[in-house]
Amino acid sequence: MRNLFTKASIIAGSLIFAAQVYAAPALSVRIMQPKSPTNQSSLKLTVVTLDRLGRAVTVKCFKKGPADAGFTQFGADLVLAAGGNSVNCETSSSVLTTNGTYQFFATATADPDTETSPTITVDYNTSGPGTPTNYSKEQPSSCTYKIKVKTADDAGKTVRVDLYRSDTTSFSADVSHRVDQRFVGSNTDVEILNTVGDCSKTYYFALRAFDSAENGSGVVGDSIVTVITTTTSTTTTTTTSTTGAVQGAIAVPGTAGNVLGEQTEGQATEGTTEAQGSTLGEATPSAEEQVYTGQKSGLAALLTVKNLLFAAAIGIAILILTWLLRKKEPVA
Asked: Which phi and psi (to 5°) does residue 323 adopt?
């Protein structure tokens, strides 16, 4: 009798294991986590799909912003080739409309199956830190400059200060002119000693603060400089005289050619070239947004292939056990 039960248990276990293997979803989908926080409204959220049955896959992108009551679809349906592939859910300023926390997920449908990806979170922030104050420059020796500044009292927005240097009065606030970085918080006195290579030259300095999303503050630095404002299409040069400060524009990271300067009205001033985040194209929003809860109906969830296979495996195991027990019974 013990051997009989052992055989029945092995058979039942094997059937249940097979049911688990074959009940694994044929369709899968996941969405990749981008850099967060970010100041970029144009994001490419990569969605990866796979269908083991080789069916065509349709992907839908969903978002929930800080002012949204629930998830809504953004962008058009994305139709992939048989078997699935990777595709991008692309956001724009019409999707990321206000600063705050956004949630995203994607669904993949290969008729009649639909799967939902895990939800990712992105912190969108374009406000930027306050401009540093109390700028001063000293030259203790011919080869050394002492730069002092105080970060703005901006409630913790400031996380870093970058120092830029040039031997001309017109220069870009980019990585080619950056000579120091200090990771400091708000309302903090900063002192930087900078040693130059050619002690016979006169050097000019400027600083700006950054937040965790790579938003740049205005710029402070030496007086009487040429201020250059660069956009993606135009360059404006202005000569200005200030008292110990050069006031700059808020940075918009992600593009090259970043410069110190004042923002010309109607233009977008670019920020530091080291900033993270994608600036590739904007998605075309769907003409009709759809509300999606991500939940299956109770009957649909109950009558899944996995549950049916488990039930079948258990039933077969019971039948085999019953047959083996009857086989062992003595004939009257």
From this structure: -65, -40
For residue 280, pLDDT over 60 is answered with: no
Look at the domain 133-240 and name its fold.
Immunoglobulin-like (2.60.40)
How far is it, in rounded angstroms, from Cα 301 to Cα 201? 75
Confidence of residue 285 (pLDDT cuts 50, 70, 90): very low
* 251-254-257-259 Cα dihedral, nearest 10 degrees: 10
Domain boundaries, the chain: 25-126, 133-240
To which residue do tokens 């404002």 refer?
A: 229
**Which tokens sit at 23?**
């009940």
**Residue 311: other Cβ atoms inside 10 A:** 11
pTM of the model: 0.61
Q: Which residues pair with 161 in a beta bridge?
A: 182, 209
Q: At which residue do the structure tokens 């900078």 appear?
A: 194
CATH class of the domain at 25-126? mainly beta
pLDDT tens digits for 111-121? 999 999 999 99
